[in-house]
Amino acid sequence: MIPLLAASSADYLVPVVTVLAALGAVVSAFRPKPAAKRLSASPVLEAPNGMGSEPRQTQWLEKSLLFILAGYILFDRPFAWLHVPGTPLFVGEMVLALGVGVVLTTRTRLAQLLRRSASLKAVRNFMVWGAILLILQVLPYGLDAIRDSALWYYGFFAMLTAILFWSRPQRVNEWVGRYSRLIPIYLGWFPFAVVLASVGPTNILVPDSQISIFNHKNGNMAVLSAIAIAFMWLADSDNRYFSRRQRVWLTTLATLLIVLTGLQNRGGMVASFALIAALLLVLSRRRGELLMLMIAALVLTASIAVVFDIRIELFGDREISIEQFTSNVSSVFDPEAGGARQSSTTAWRLNIWEQVLNDVTNDRPFAGFGPGPDLGERYDISTNPDQPLRNPHNSHVGILARLGWVGVTLWLLLWATWFTEMYQLRHRLRYRGDDHTSNLVGWIFLAPIPILVNAIFDPTLEGAQVAVLLWTLVGSGAAIALLERTNRLPESRVVMSYSEKRSKLRAQVPIQD
């Protein structure tokens, strides 16, 4: 979760009520129902006038969720830090509270969704364990306990997404279309964001915070660039959203972004390459075309850098150069090859993770330290007093530290269940001949991979800018699986490719003498 400002006891009210209300919304869904009431094909949210319309608050929830997703993608941490001045009420928590309100004030069938979806059950189990530990520690630790619970309570966004998709299945196509229009926007913006994050002024801050408005993490940009490549080559394999020429240019740009961000962040580079490798395994055709395009982009960039001896100094001992890139790639396999700075960073992280593993296993194996204790202080990893670290610099190790081996087991079961469900769903769709939805599910299956890999190197899952996107993907996949089982998948709209649209427009233009 976003580090909160110093707050008085009165400021505890909003986050405490929000988190406990989210827990109440989930727990209330477990009320016994008559056996005759089973999950049907009717919408989750009952229309108030019988005409198929939705409650207004549901529409506001969708708009708010789409708004923060776009904000997190484009502006990363500075956007996540937007909040009501003087309070710990951040934009992500405000949308979460709105979602809780929708669940509590509209007639939902969240209980039936939870009973029928193995993935949502796994999310629920993970959240409930975290909530139990929060209840036990919220009084002695206050806001710190709630802050550390972001590892699990953002999971409620998965349930909200599932509710929205089940309520109106056509949202699947609408959200995919919106994301496709966002891809060229954020790929075009990221080169400027990389430069501003490195050499931009640091004294222009988000109001009421110590966060620079240019504080955009390179690892997150690399991950989003790789996810865009996967979308264009898998989810859009039938050219519904991008022409072949657009795909080539955008893929080249995304590849260069991965290289550019990889000069400063090894974790994001490794995570991106992990997704590209998985994508090459999944692609049934055009695999060679994608591989050759990315290699050509890398070779061309390297050639230009060598010929013109391009070197741009960045912070610390980093620079934009071919030597820096090869050093970062080599250090992934041999920490000593990256120089003293990278070698010491790797050793520092491994030492912290080993200490956490030993302490939890030997002293607190069941529930870990729970939410609240300052692990940064315990393991002497708080390097900045203005922005103290409260975690072991690894979200997965953080789950072990906060939730113990029980939490780690539930975390692993969650992903094993979800990946299995998505794999089976994709094959069912391919068997039915629905290649478009099958490829979309394939992309949803791959998209969390770089996020989870990057979380090994950076505690990204505690921040809303990454966690909300991850949990939205989880909820999207679970919802599509439920829609497929009940034959409620939206019909794939016949969308002309860009080349077909161009030909049609040309045919309509009168020939001038």
Structure summary:
The protein is mainly α. It is built from 21 helices and 2 strands.
Please explain how this structure is put together.
- The protein is an all-alpha fold and 513 residues long.
- The chain has one domain.
- It is built from 21 helices and two strands.
- The protein starts with 12 loop residues before the first helix and ends in a 5-residue tail after the last helix.
- Residues 1-17, 26-42, 45-51, 494-499 and 509-513 have low confidence and may be disordered.
Class of secondary structure makeup:
mainly alpha
Average per-residue pLDDT, rounded, comes to 83
The geometry reads as globular
Spell out the helices and strands N to C. Answer: HHHHHHHHHHHHHEEHHHHHHHH
Report on the biggest sheet.
2 strands, antiparallel
Q: Got a strand count?
A: 2
Q: Give me the Rg, rounded.
A: 23 Å
